[in-house]
């Protein structure tokens, strides 16, 4: 019954109780709210259910350890998703040795495409997901942070340790790459 009472609280209220009143058991409410979302974000990069679950657990453990670093400058979910994406990208960088500037040079677009000229309203969602798997994890994370999680440019920049101007430039490049690859792979279907 007490659990129901706490489940009605906002994330920020629960975190405040954890930090100020040392009610660490309340983290279970946060965990239950976000585990599936974090796991799904991991799965979109790893394509492995077991690895995604393990990684989501690791991320949520890391978030618990860093709770006192949450300053309510953004929503808790934005903060959590930033940590999630950052952890995923760091892992993929180390595992696959993917350094974005080097990868971008090696996978340069033949010409810069103005994604605003393309009619992407007709793009198939399933085909779009295929294209997302072809781009660099950092570009994918940028697009997901901006368009799926609605994070601000400032929050994205802080998460990836780049300036807001770099975020804008990389978002434009990522959108251009998605449009280019989509029409290269699927034509005007």
Describe it for me?
The chain is an all-alpha fold. The chain folds into two domains: 1-97, Rna Polymerase Sigma Factor, Chain: A (Orthogonal Bundle); 100-189, Arc Repressor Mutant, subunit A (Orthogonal Bundle). Helix content is 70%, strand content 0%. The chain is built from ten helices and no strands. It has helices at residues 2-7, 11-21, 27-46, 49-65, 76-96, 100-106, 125-132, 137-148, 153-160, 164-186. Helix 4 packs across helix 5 (76-96). It is elongated, with a radius of gyration of 18 Å. The relative contact order is 0.10. The mean pLDDT is 83.
Strand content: under 5%
Q: Which class best fits the helix and strand makeup?
A: mainly alpha
* Beta strands, count: 0
Low-confidence segments, given as residue ranges, are none
The CATH class of the largest domain, by name, is Mainly Alpha
Q: Name the overall outline.
A: elongated
Looking at how many chains there are and whether they match, the oligomeric state comes to: single chain
| Rg, Cα atoms, Å | 18 Å
Give the biggest sheet.
none
* Secondary-structure element order, N to C: HHHHHHHHHH
Q: So, the CATH homologous superfamily of the largest domain? A: RNA polymerase sigma factor, region 2, helix turn helix motif
